[in-house]
Amino acid sequence: MSADDSIRVFYLKDKEHSTIIYVSSEPDTPLIRLGWNKQDPRYMATIIMDSAKVVVLDIRFPTMPVLELQRHPASVNAIAWAPHSSCNICTT
Predict the structure, then answer these.
(1) Predicted pLDDT at 5
(2) b/e for 77-87, b at 16 or more Cβ within 10 A?
(3) How far apart are the C-alpha atoms of 81 and 88, rounded to whole Å?
(4) Distances (CA, A) of 21 to 40, 58, 74
(5) Would you list the domain boundaries of the chain?
(6) What's the CA gap between 52 and 20, in Å, rounded?
(7) C-alpha neighbours within 13 Å on the C-beta side of residue 25
């Protein structure tokens, strides 16, 4: 995550260049957490500050969320992928 409310992937061979994976859908609202899927590293999830939305991303398809989960009645503060399953994520 970066200061401009985006998630970027940097390549170790060329640290001057990056690929923007996602930009917050709410202007001037930071992304506060990032969780990598431990079984399938192509997937990550992020949460937006003061939002009930969890955004699931696939690094192969930058800028377009795979899924947006919106089941919480209040803000989401933490995310974690299940350590032994690529399909389960815990949000609080």
Answers:
(1) 85
(2) eebebeeeeee
(3) 6
(4) 16, 8, 26
(5) 6-91
(6) 23
(7) 13
For residue range 3-16, list pLDDT tens digits in order: 578 898 888 888 78
For the chain (92 residues), the mean pLDDT of every run of 10, in chain order, is 76 84 86 93 94 94 92 95 94 94
pLDDT tens, position by position, 14-28: 878 888 899 988 888
- CA-to-CA separations, 37 to 3, 5, 81, 88, in angstroms, rounded: 23, 21, 5, 9
Q: Give dist(CA 8, CA 13) in Å, integer.
A: 15
* Amino acid (one-letter) located at 2: S
Residue with tokens 């260049």: 17
